[in-house]
Amino acid sequence: MTDAISVARGVSWRVLHTFFTNKAFLLPSVMFPLFFFTAFVGGLSRISQVPGFDFPTGYTAFQFVFVLLQSAAFAGVFTGFGIARDFETGFMRRLMLAAPNRSGILLGYVFSALVRWATVAVVVTIVALLAQMKIGGNGVDLFGLYVLALLLNLAGALWAAGVAMRLRSQQAAPVMQMPVFLLLFFAPVYVPLNLLEGWIHGVATVNPITALLEAGRGFISGRPELTLAAFAIAAGLILGFAAWAFRGLRRAEAAG
Amino acid sequence: MTATALVQTAALSKRAVVRTARQPANVVFPLIFPMLLFAVNAGGLKAETQLPGFPTSSFVAFALAVPFVQGALLATINANVEFARDIQTGFLNRLALTPVRGIVLLFGQLGGLVTIAVVQAVFYLAVGLAFGVRLQSGVAGAAMLLLLETCIALAFASLGSWAALRTGSTEAVQGLFPVFFVFLFLSSMNIPRNLIEADWFRWVATVNPVSYLIEAVRALVITGWDWETIGLGFAVAAGLTIAGFALATHALWNRLERT
Description:
The complex is a heterodimer of chains A (256) and B (259). By secondary structure, chain A is mainly α. In chain A, 79% of the residues lie in helices and 0% in strands. Chain A has helices spanning 2-21, 23-44, 58-89, 91-98, 103-130, 139-167, 173-185, 199-206, 208-221, 227-255. Chain A is elongated and about 60 Å long. In chain B, 80% of the residues lie in helices and 0% in strands. In chain B, 48% of the residues are buried. Chains A and B meet through helix 2, helix 7 and helix 8 of A and helix 2, helix 9 and helix 10 of B.
């Protein structure tokens, strides 16, 4: 266990050092959620006047939850890109030879994804507050919202790590990114679930991200809903993708 | 342009098309990604049609304009990444040693790219028709739509070619994708400008040329022959093309001088 922690510490330090010192990695991670927040809140706020739109704390808070969850999931996915890059450059092979406990490698990447997302979350939250976002929930509700996002970040990182460990190429980026993009955007992004019609309503109803989004919006509005279901789904995703990622690690080890 | 130059342009255009067609990712991604965004927006924003003053009762028809502009943008990025690769690998330098005139290199590149964009546009139009969209401008409107798409693709292509020639770097051209994406999202792509509530966003969408390109395509789909909107779209596309082409030509001269 001590070996795993020391390996994880080394790996996460390296990833985070690269992230914070290289603008090419830092800026897109921060700018993309901000950009989506700006485009959605600025461009689509009139949607809150659609009959039936009854979100109590306004469209800024409504979209903030989506952007927060999206940034969490994508911070995880971007970490997968880094793993794939390390395979391509040959760094991962050297790392596997040197690490006394290879599970620590995976833990290190996952921990770095958490820190990456925490950085983005701070920036997005500050911008949302500057945009006069109304918050109806109390401290416990907000804690719940951020924990939910953090769990999604973990799930996203484990999913992407599993793909990267199996395909070991940066060309796998769309495989990591596209399913996450689709899951996020086939949820009630722009309007509440009850205002969706047709096929998208059906898809959003069975989409697991919908429960997370609705629970998050419940937290920020101070009217928690689907909380238990959302945390159960998040826990299920983490367990499933943890098994996926660790089996991927074993495959990468076997591949040499 | 002489007959020889035309033949050379056609040959280089054909090469640009074949090179793209041989890479499935460069063909499939520009077809599928705009359709996914179209599906997401058409489904998720349907409630917008209940807003007073919304110009149509079909959000699918309203949203159909976006894939045309987004597709042209994606085609531009992919094709100009290949153009930048030609520069990186020295192909352009070798070509410059042949009797082919410099400007033909540019016309060939742009011609190939526009061909790809028009093929994509036919696909988007077919998808729209399959989902029940009927062009208010009729069959002639479809022809006008493809002409407009050609101009839009030419505008993005000339700007992308400038980036490729100026930098000679595939990464730099790929870096244009987020920039174009920002322009797309900060436009009237999801809501008519007069219905945008935030003043600052309405202002940004108004000064953003992409809004006029989208609105011209949209006019042909949901309004009909709204000449003012259509004319503005063509004017913006022509302006961007002229600016992009002038910059690209200048960058080409500089690059050929260096070689």
